[in-house]
Amino acid sequence: MTRLGVFLLWLLHFLPFRVLVWIGNALGLLLYVLAKERRRVSAINLSLCFPELSEAQRTLMVRDHFKMFARGLIERTILWWSSGTRILGLIRVEGVEHFNAVKGKPVILLVPHFVGMDVGGQWVAQHTDTVCMYANQKNLYLTELLLKKRARFGNQLLYSRQQGLRPILKGMRKGMPFVYPPDQDQGVKDGAFIPFFGVPAATMTSVPRIAQMTGAAVVPCITRLLPGAAGYVLTFYPAWENYPSGDDIADTRYMNEFIEQRVREMPEQYFWLHKRFKTRPEGEPKFY
To answer: Is 243 in contact with 251 (CB distance < 8 Å)?
Structure first.
């Protein structure tokens, strides 16, 4: 069944981009109706992060997010099977000077979980070799497929979380950017409870720690899905100044605040389906 689904996705990549966008939006509306549990998770996340909005406004935002999420899934067929030329033709890049300024140097490319993150990742992969971490899927076939497609351009080195940081640091010291999404709940074993939209959220403190160990600059890069068939905008931001400061908690709070600002610019494109606040401080009630 999984292989059949992948085959159907492969067929889709031959379609014009505007048709893929339409299919993605339609699929998103269908998932909004059918995926009751993930709809509930998204609604809880948005009620925590945007309490100032009415319930009707948040409901609309959840629906819009499902459409964007499904677009990201369907349009990933282009990233996996289309030519590099076709991919680059869909992406407008802003702030590329910030990317060029750190090429060949230790750098963390900070890629928060927006639905377009893989689009930006494929642009980066066509311009430099990188290192990154991945999480194993429950399905071995899907894990192998994702690894193959994410590494289809250049020399992209992917390591599982179980392999730890050592190979990542080794690659960074050779001047390979570390493409890192730091904003999901992985507990507080290697992190702390840091406010995210004012809510204590289990957040890895690894960005300032890795920057300290390697002397890496931190350059955020975020991809926005544009309306209709207009494609994408990949934005590189200036490297953070005086970072890390030596205070891991303050530096991680700075990171969360930066991500908050970007979320407010396009809230429907942030990954709300994830249980971002699953881990709670001792004694606090669970949200989900």
So the answer is: yes
Whole-prediction pTM value?
0.94
CATH of domain 2-269: 3.40.1130
- Looking at residue 44, its pLDDT comes to 98
Q: Which helix (H) or strand (E) holds 219?
A: strand 217-225
Question: Which DSSP category does 286 fall into?
Answer: P
Measured distance CA(133)–CA(113) in Å, rounded: 14
Residue-range domain boundaries for the chain: 2-269
pLDDT in tens, 191-224: 899 999 999 999 999 999 999 999 999 999 999 9
Residue 277 pLDDT more than 70? yes
CB 54 within 8 A of CB 62: no
Burial of 217 (0-12, 13-18, 19+ CB in 10 A): buried
Both tokens assigned to 46: 């948005």
Tell which residue, 67, 22, 68, 61, has the closest CA to residue 43.
Answer: 61
pLDDT at 1: 67
DSSP conformation letters of 65-107:
HHHHHHHHHHHHHHHHHS-HHHHHHTEEEE-HHHHHTTTTS-E
Given a contact cutoff of 8 angstroms between Cβ atoms, the answer to whether 216 and 172 are in contact is: yes
Cβ 120 vs Cβ 219: under 8 Å: no
Structure tokens at 236: 């590189």
